[in-house]
Sequence to fold (620 residues):
Amino acid sequence: MAISGYIRRICATTGLVVFLAVSLGCSGGLAAEPKRVLVLHSFGRDFKPWSEYAKAIRTELDRHSPWPLDIIEFSLVTARAGDAKSEEPFVDYLHALFTQRPPDLIVSIGAPAAVFVQQHRPQLFTTTPMVIAALEQRRIQRSSLTENDTVVAVAADFPAIIENILRVLPDTKTVAVVMGDSPNERFWLEELRKEFPPFADRLSFIWYNDQPFADILKHVAALPPHSAIFFFLMNIDAAGVVYEGDTALQRLSAVANAPIFTHDSAYFGREIVGGPMHSVSNLGRLTAAAAVRILAGEKASDVRIPASTFAAPIFDWREMQRWGISEKNLLSGSEILFRNPTAWEQYRWQIALIFSVIFIQAALIAGLLYEHRRRRLAEGESFRRMTELAHLNRVATAGELSASIAHEVKQPLAAVIAHSGAARRWLAGETPNLQEVLASLKKIEFAGQRAGEIVENLRSMFRKETNGRRPLDINKLVGNVLAITGHEIEKNSISVKTSLFSGVEPLVMGDQAQLEQVLLNLVVNAIEAMSSSNSNPRVLELKTAPKTGNEILVSVADTGPGIGAENLEKIFDAYYTTKAHGMGMGLSICRSIIESHGGRLWVSQGDRGLTFYVSLPRSN
Fold:
């Protein structure tokens, strides 16, 4: 008994394992089997607006379906004429095609397809669930709906289209309604005629449903001013001509003299101005979601989806520009698409960077120009002040040496008087000595020339001359300075030693008055340094000699007390002085004058006193 019970338990366990394996295998096979979806198109696959809804639905089904899909599509060509008898062979064909394996779901797209499937529901797959999609809710035959049907519809507000036209184009007086003459379009003709009377006091409507499309094109090309076009549908015109895709709308836009509006975004993208419209993408998502729920086993009648209203207004920027429509006239919350980006919108960061660089460069250039101007003004002011100070220094120096100058002028004048007296005496004799008279006259002439030179040098010293440069003999300048200061040298018991450059005439290019001022200042400083101390002997030594390169060197040495090594270079600073009543400008001005002549001025201290050196370029 125990063994038989054990065997039974083993068999039961084995059977359970086999059952689970078979069940998993079967369920795996079922999961891999595709769902069959029958799609019925109104008129054909390329008729707008339904073709755009079909694309959106298919895209969303492929994206969200957890199963592979076998989508089978058919077009209801017979619905174009609305002939019920011509549909019977097509119904028989579908019945025969799906007898062995009916579809898992039927999706009808558009009102003509919905009318067809509802009329023939008893003959076509009575138990197959169906989604009636992409139609306006007024086209649904609700009395014919079964528990296996669900509807994904839209609710159109056609007066809102007219209100949008009046808002965008307030001066509109005429609205031309473009639509075809198929059974579906004739239904909507009556509906629109019922909804537009409230606008009769503001607008006149032109209806083109009963005209061939070729005639419609002629009329819209000559609409009166302040007109707008409402494009509803143009599938089949009054002459029976079929228009697929965008053919009719493109031809209409090419000749129309008024902007075009519509109620469905399936037409939006080039020819339509815009406004509130049905959203193709939104209805595609809703239809695909309902289909997936039904394929998953949910009862079709339990899948209830409210009719979709118009989406937020959208407008085509290109058409707004074409018809001169201002953005301020658009409905609140409107979105403008296809706007051509401005250069700023396309290259914002690049433009900002370029302008930043330009701004920085402009600021730098402005700063440099400002600083350059300030420097030039400062240099001009400095030069002017230096000239003023040099002039003041010359005046001060001339004042201090006025006694010496007066003495120097007296000498040639006294010589003139003496020689004139001598010449008169030689002429007054019994026998005039003409040789002696001629000699006296020559001495008078020389003395007069000397007096004239002294006066001219004095005048030049007091003039502010900056451009009177000419070749000068440096030895003669030294001689002139010694002549001017001779009285002070003699008065202070100073002996003078000179060692002047001989051979080729030592010429330098310069202003005589300024260079004489420099040498005069250096000699006067040396005289004052030796006279203010008990230095003995008092020797003033002046030398001129060629220097390495194309220069001439002048040195002025004294045997005064000198100056401390720490203050040696300070003596050239403005306002620095070792004199009790000095201004401290003399040597500073001297250095400026020499440097303006392209030379150098420096000082050295020996065992006794100071030696100043002036280096000047030779005149070629």
